[in-house]
Give the backbone structure.
Amino acid sequence: MKTTLTRSVKKAAGFILEAELVAFPTETVYGLGANLFSEQALKKIFLAKGRPADNPLIAHIFDLLQLDALVDRVPRAAERFIEAFFPGPLTLVLPKTQKVPTLATAGLDTLGVRMPRHPIASAFLKACGIPLAAPSANLSGRPSPTSWQAVREDMEGHISCILKGGQTEVGLESTVVDCTYRVPLILRAGATTLEQLRAVVSTTRLAGTSRSEPPKSPGLKYRHYSPRAMVVLVNQLEEAVATKDAAYIGMNAPPKANVFGKQHICSSVKEYARSLFSFFRNCDGAGIRVIYCQTVPPTSLGLALMDRLERASHP
Ligand code: TXA
Ligand code: MG
């Protein structure tokens, strides 16, 4: 299959209307979009990514009016999150309508919905006119793509089109919050932080912190975000052993920093989050065997960053 690279949202939307797949930029990571109401298109997502069929997809919208066709009701907490954080890096899990194919939700009766704030994403969604199901545009298990070049690495020849944009701003996937439970539960940490969510609905908490809770997101049981190199978390800088086939990323320079095959010292947690997945991919491209990653305090965006680092370090 030929993969068309374009900057035209109109051209890209044309493929969606023919039940084809289009990768597109969002503020978090690149998504792999398909018509949410087309079973034929949805099947292509699972095939192209090698994604397990029991891992549900997120619906992407550009206008709140699109919610009617997707969800049966919007609980009060969700209403408040929508008001405070849409459009943005937040996915809300809500009770789905009959109209949403079960293939999209992997048989669940809930649907994750997100309204990206990236201008190209909204223009593209608008040009499509229908909600798009869109997982991250990587092969299953690989780090999510934060540039169109990373999408091409994984998807060239397997999807119809890549809508080109720049490097993504956040670099980590959206926060996923289940709003169908008695209290809002964070299933996946992201750039909309626990602290921000709590300021709007104070009962919000991280899933998995109480026994009486429903199970976490199905996708979280799978290996994720992993480069081919081994990932080792570093609490004390001395734990990072400098060699040519090792790499280092963190906020502070380790001893013998210039001996590492690759190294990236980040100026902020935000920059660390933004660079992490592309750093992982660069390391794989350079044949690095071990990547040392400095840990950060698990608060605010640091919670999401630590979540991804921990997953990457437990293959
Ligand atoms: O930032 C993002 O969310 C990106 C961009 C493209 O929007 N998308 C993304 O999608 O990361 P994906 O498919 O790679 O991750 C979706 C996560 C998975 O862990 C999945 O299990 C969970 O969200 N999820 C989706 N629908 C769900 C539902 N109904 N209930 C619980 N978890 C759900
Ligand atoms: Mg993903």
User: Anything to note?
Assistant: The chain has a mean pLDDT of 95. The chain is about 30% helix and 20% strand. The longest strand covers residues 90-95.
